[in-house]
Design a protein that fits this description.
By secondary structure, the chain is an alpha/beta fold. The chain has two domains: 31 residues, no CATH class; 108 residues, RlpA-like domain (Barwin-like endoglucanases), CATH 2.40.40.10. Helices cover 16% and strands 25% of the residues.
Amino acid sequence: MKKYVLYALLLAGLPVAAAAQEHKDSIVLTKSKNVGRLQYGVASFYDNKFEGRKTANGEIFSQKNMTAASNTHPLNCWVRVTNSRNKKSVIVRITDRMHPKNPRLIDLSKTAAAKLGYTGRGLTRVKVEYLGRQKPAATGDSEENK
């Protein structure tokens, strides 16, 4: 159980050393194997009821922003999400977490979901590529966002 608590602390962005001091007894410290790799799964988008609420990183959520929620990527990192059906892609910043029992890979803002072309469907299969914590040069309406 303590191993999962540490993993949750790591996902929340706490430093590993601080988390390790709080939970010393027989915990294996590992970083997520998914960070820095491609992931494939199902994407959804935020319901309008979350508009104006505070996200996990402290920002106020807006459907107009190019943001997303993920349980497998660190907060404030950038990811490229590609729709498997039509190959459209967007670059979004991870600002929130989903419910721990949510089986989906990522939850996008409605603007990001519209650019990927799946708001009419509700869900779509996607590829998610971790880009790092630095803002990528191509985050505007460039070729990969069309």
